[in-house]
Design brief:
InterPro entries: Aminotrans_II_pyridoxalP_BS, Aminotransferase_I/II_large, AON_synthase_class-II, AONS_Archaea/Firmicutes, PyrdxlP-dep_Trfase, PyrdxlP-dep_Trfase_major, PyrdxlP-dep_Trfase_small. The chain is of the alpha/beta class and about 400 residues long. About 45% of the residues lie in helices and about 15% in strands. It folds into two domains: about 130 residues, Aspartate Aminotransferase, domain 1; about 230 residues, Type I PLP-dependent aspartate aminotransferase-like (Major domain) (Aspartate Aminotransferase, domain 2).
């Protein structure tokens, strides 16, 4: 008979033996471009805090005001007694920002994919997913009863082939990330939507890493490609990356919100967001529209950092966005580089299999609007020294 202690011990032993055991680093200071990790002052290249909003005073002031006015919590699931006026006000603000007919906020980006895919897809439907889509999409599709197919990453000929080989009278859904989280490349949404429309399919975009990064005022990948008013394009994403807080959203057709309120299980069975969260999110959307310098600095920093890494001889894997991978090949090399960078005052996390392919272990860097040129030069100097010491770049 297997005991709980034995099961837990066996699982931890297996993870350690496979080199997959994780012990999270602990931040001793707020989430900023410069922070403190395990007692060490560092330049932070590990967070998703693209616009520097996580500790921004404007968001904190609005969060405090909502907390004092509306209380600490929503007190119930949204469909019973947990919908406060501020929830609906923010969703209207988000739909207006995204240029969509409706928007609904859920508890997280991960659960948003579960809720939306589970609500839309039925037996007899067809869903086609990019092979490098996020784990939340994969898990969401596992819960759906539709026929599931995969197309090769950003391969439009393969997408067309799958659609041709799988005719159905049901709903057809093509699912893609807007920005792919490990490589930093952008989905060719103009081509995807065109092919989807040719076969009468709807396009579903998880814009976790595109919202707040691409499009005018950070409206996202869908806006970047000019599809924000399209009723046959669904946007989902997170409110925890560029927007600096927590939550997920779905935006699209005017009826999408109502259907999700009635069918999305994460929405139906989870308490509404605390007022302070809603206040901070509302402030984030206001701020990015009032001040264009956040987006300007984000992209200036991104272009500079990428160019300098490439000049030093590092492989950034063709990234098109602030997500900037530095390829080390073997996981052991990436993890050792991460350890040495931390000693140099740079917080940048190594990633290996199964998060990325075995021979493409890397450090994933994310440049933010808050980084100064001094921050980036400090990080680049550390990268140069560590890269030379490990034989990754010449010198």
């Amino acid at each position: 008979m297997t005991t709980l202690h034995a099961r837990l011990n066996d699982e931890l032993t297996r993870l350690r033996s496979a080199g997959l055991h994780i012990t999270p680093r602990v931040l001793d200071a707020p989430q900023r471009a410069r922070t403190r990790v395990d007692g060490v002052d560092v330049v932070n290249l590990a967070s998703n805090n693209y616009l520097g909003f996580a500790d921004h005073p404007y968001l904190k002031e609005r969060a405090e005001a909502y907390l004092r006015t509306w209380g600490a919590g929503a007190g119930a699931v949204r469909t019973i007694a947990g919908t406060l006026k501020i929830h609906e006000d923010f969703e209207a603000q988000l739909a207006q920002f995204k240029h969509t007919g409706s928007a609904l906020v859920l508890q997280s980006g991960f659960t948003t994919n579960q809720g939306v895919l589970g609500s839309l897809l039925q037996e007899g439907d067809l869903v086609i997913s990019d092979e490098l889509n996020h784990a939340s999409i994969i898990d969401g599709l596992r819960l759906a009863k539709a026929t599931k197919k995969i197309f090769k990453h950003k391969d439009m000929a393969d997408l067309r082939r799958v659609l041709q080989e799988n005719p159905t009278d049901g709903l057809k859904l093509v699912v893609t990330d807007g920005v792919f989280s490990m490589d930093g490349d952008i989905a060719p949404l103009d081509q995807i939507v065109a092919i989807a429309r040719e076969f009468g399919a709807v396009t579903y975009v998880d814009d976790a890493h595109g919202s707040g990064v691409l499009g005018a005022q950070g409206r996202g990948t869908v806006h970047h490609f000019g599809f924000e008013h399209a009723d046959d394009v669904i946007q989902v994403g997170t409110l925890s990356k560029a927007w600096g807080v927590v939550g997920g959203y779905a935006a699209g057709d005017a009826n999408l919100r109502d259907v999700l309120i009635n069918k999305a299980r994460p929405f139906l069975f989870s308490t509404g967001h605390p007022p302070a969260v809603v206040g901070a999110l509302s402030a984030a959307l206001d701020l990015v529209q009032q001040d264009e310098s956040f987006m300007t600095r984000l992209w200036e920093n991104t272009r500079y950092f990428k160019a300098e890494l490439q000049r030093l001889g590092f492989d950034t894997f063709g990234s098109e966005t602030p997500i900037t991978p530095v390829i080390f090949g073997e996981a052991s090399a990436a993890f050792e580089a991460s350890r040495r960078l931390l000693q140099e005052g740079v917080f940048a996390v190594g990633l290996g299999f199964p998060t990325v392919p075995r021979d493409l272990a890397r450090i994933r860097n994310i440049v933010t609007a808050e980084h100064t040129r001094e921050d980036l030069d400090h990080a680049l100097g550390a990268y140069e020294r560590v890269g030379r010491a490990l034989g990754v770049v010449g010198g």
